[in-house]
Amino acid sequence: MTSHTDIDATELHALLASRKTILVDVRNDDEVARGVIEGAMHLPMMVIPSMGSLLCEHHDTALVFYCHSGIRSAQAAAFIAGMDRENVYNLRGGILAWANAGYTFVPKTD
């Protein structure tokens, strides 16, 4: 069974700059309204199980989950990795770690 990898904000920043990455924000609507990491798609945690087959496509593309503190996104990453999806990552510390590392947010776009 495949497992996910925890990465920190600096590793995520480098990953986003170096290769094609699918970035998934699993926070609630009210949290996302405060801003997202640029390029992120918003898929609330509750829809991850129904999106599993779609998220399992493109094994060569990095798939990174994040939330507020890294707990919900770790669950999402573990779920998808459990479906034998490779290259699955979790942002350790969530968007809080991203902000603490000095990286910016952008407004959520629909």
Descriptive notes:
- By secondary structure, this protein is of the alpha/beta class.
- It has helices spanning 9-18, 29-32, 52-55, 71-81, 94-100, and strands at residues 5-7, 21-25, 41-42, 62-66, 88-91.
- It has a five-stranded parallel beta sheet with strand order 1-5-4-2-3.
- Strand 4, helix 4 and strand 5 form a beta-alpha-beta unit.
- The longest helix is centred in the last third of the chain and has 11 residues, at 71-81.
- The N and C termini lie far apart (35 Å).
- The model has no long low-confidence stretch (mean pLDDT 94).
- GO terms for molecular function: thiosulfate-cyanide sulfurtransferase activity.
- InterPro entries: Rhodanese-like_dom, Rhodanese-like_dom_sf.
- Pfam families: Rhodanese.
Summarize this structure as a short list of keywords or feature phrases.
single chain, Oxidized Rhodanese, domain 1
Low-pLDDT stretches are none
Number of helices: 5
CATH class: Alpha Beta
Distance between the termini: 35 Å
**Helical/strand content category:** alpha/beta
CATH architecture: 3-Layer(aba) Sandwich
Number of strands: 5
State the assembly state of the protein chains: single chain
Give the neighbour order of strands across the main sheet: 1-5-4-2-3
Mean pLDDT: 94
Shape by Cα distribution = globular
The structural domain count equals 1
CATH superfamily: Rhodanese-like domain
Helix fraction, binned, reads 25-40%
Briefly note the CATH topology name.
Oxidized Rhodanese, domain 1
Biggest beta sheet attributes: 5 strands, parallel
H-E order: EHEHEHEHEH
* Percent of sequence in beta strands: 15-25%
Rg, please? 13 Å
